[in-house]
């Protein structure tokens, strides 16, 4: 069990801190303190009650050490994926205190000529979460022979809640008495689950092999694997990762995730998104090149909508797609899990 000192440094309430938010919300580990000068002296619950956890907010790593952390989490997606220069002093302080440093950025700590010998001297682990393991194989088709049910979350765009949907569905399945397991494919998911592969760092020819490796190496006790999706077929920068997961995990059921009101991808070239029924058809067609996988339900992220607007939006999605829909952020995961489980039962015959 880790005890996290979470570094957000002025981004605690911003989208840039989604790694911090995900770990705080879903980890079973202790949250020792948050390092954020903008909110120092307050508490996590007072600043972000929606995360469902509490911890003191402090102004520095040195102040945070009094709360007995074991690990420092770099919890912000920084521009370019590199450690800001003013963070280095904090990272060095944490290493000198013997803390593990968990880094989900694209720039690796283990490539830093100053930090590596310092960490060796203080017996502090540098954990570059995105670094893929050695020896990832090409896709072999063995995932098709796995005696487990596989569910994959897919998205209309990036940052629509695929990881959250997977985590909430996995928990709902477990609450319903099924032996479920969350399979992490991105840095935040890995930090929560404690293992996984950040597939966006894998050489393109081996993405499907990495995805297959993840499902083949799942826990022996698990009967249903809920795989965290990445990217979107409609986002040209990340569609290759999406397709690698879609084929490599060989899912039997898909769950489509969508941000309410989003009509175009959020980044250049701002491509217009097709209607949800068309997305469903495309995802099902692409999955079927390896194994047929129907979309069982639609997870609608209703962030920013009031309860009435959210309810009407979900009803519209159900009318448009003919599928159950709901918002896992608002307690609909059990309903959506039932839709997934029904589909799995139909496939099993």
Describe the structure.
- The chain has 349 residues and is an alpha/beta fold.
- The chain has two domains: 3-128, Rossmann fold, CATH 3.40.50; 142-348, Rossmann fold.
- It contains twelve helices and twelve strands.
- It has helices at residues 18-26, 44-47, 61-64, 88-96, 115-122, 162-175, 187-193, 207-216, 239-248, 276-287, 307-321, 333-348; strands at 3-7, 30-35, 57-58, 71-74, 100-103, 126-128, 149-155, 180-183, 224-227, 253-259, 295-301, 325-326.
- The protein has a six-stranded parallel sheet, sandwiched between helices. It has a six-stranded parallel sheet with strand order 8-9-7-10-11-12, sandwiched between helices.
- α6 crosses α12.
- The longest helix is centred in the C-terminal third of the chain and has 16 residues, at 333-348.
- The radius of gyration is 20 Å and the shape is globular.
- The N and C termini lie far apart (41 Å).
- The mean pLDDT is 96.
Low-confidence stretches: none
End-to-end C-alpha gap: 41 Å
CATH superfamily annotation of the largest domain: P-loop containing nucleotide triphosphate hydrolases
What is the residue-averaged pLDDT? 96
Structural class: alpha/beta
**Judging from the principal axes of the Cα atoms, what is the shape?**
globular
CATH architecture of the largest domain: 3-Layer(aba) Sandwich
Radius of gyration: 20 Å
Report the sheet-strand fraction: 15-25%
What is the CATH class designation of the largest domain?
Alpha Beta
Can you summarize the main beta sheet? 6 strands, parallel
CATH fold naming of the largest domain: Rossmann fold
- The overall number of domains is 2
Q: What's the helix-strand series?
A: EHEHEHEHEHEEHEHHEHEHEHEH
Order of strands across the biggest sheet? 3-2-1-4-5-6
Number of helices: 12
User: What level of helicity do the residues show?
Assistant: 25-40%
- The count of β-strands is 12
């Amino acid at each position: 069990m880790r005890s996290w000192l979470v570094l957000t440094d002025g981004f605690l309430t911003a989208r840039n801190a989604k790694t911090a938010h995900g770990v705080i919300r879903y980890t079973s580990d202790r949250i020792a303190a948050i390092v954020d000068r903008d909110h120092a002296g307050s508490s996590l619950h007072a600043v972000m009650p929606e995360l469902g956890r509490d911890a003191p907010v402090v102004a520095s790593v040195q102040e945070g050490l009094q709360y007995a952390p074991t690990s420092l989490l770099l919890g912000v997606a920084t521009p370019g994926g590199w450690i800001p220069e003013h963070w280095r002093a904090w990272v060095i302080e944490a290493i000198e205190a013997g803390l593990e440093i968990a880094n989900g950025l694209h720039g690796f700590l283990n490539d830093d000529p100053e930090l590596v010998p310092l960490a060796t001297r203080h017996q502090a682990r540098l954990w570059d979460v995105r670094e893929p393991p050695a020896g990832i194989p090409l896709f072999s088709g063995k995932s098709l022979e796995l005696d487990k049910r596989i569910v994959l979350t897919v998205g209309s765009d990036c940052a629509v809640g695929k990881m959250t949907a997977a985590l909430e569905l996995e928990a709902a399945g477990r609450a319903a008495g099924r032996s479920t397991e969350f399979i992490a494919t991105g840095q935040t998911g890995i930090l929560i689950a404690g293992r996984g592969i950040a597939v966006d760092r894998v050489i393109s020819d081996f993405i499907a092999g990495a995805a297959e490796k993840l499902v083949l190496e799942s826990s022996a006790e698990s009967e249903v694997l809920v795989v965290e999706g990445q990217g979107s077929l409609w986002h040209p920068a990340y569609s290759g990762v999406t397709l690698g997961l879609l084929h490599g995990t060989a899912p039997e059921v898909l769950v489509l995730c969508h941000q309410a009101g989003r009509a175009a991808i959020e980044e250049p070239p701002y491509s217009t998104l097709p209607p949800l029924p068309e997305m469903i058809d495309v995802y099902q067609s692409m999955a079927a090149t390896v194994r047929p996988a129907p979309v069982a339900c639609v997870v609608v992220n209703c962030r920013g909508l009031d309860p009435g607007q959210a309810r009407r939006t979900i009803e519209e999605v159900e009318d448009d797609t003919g599928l159950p829909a709901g918002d896992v952020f608002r307690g609909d995961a059990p309903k959506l899990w039932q839709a997934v489980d029904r589909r799995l039962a139909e496939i099993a015959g």
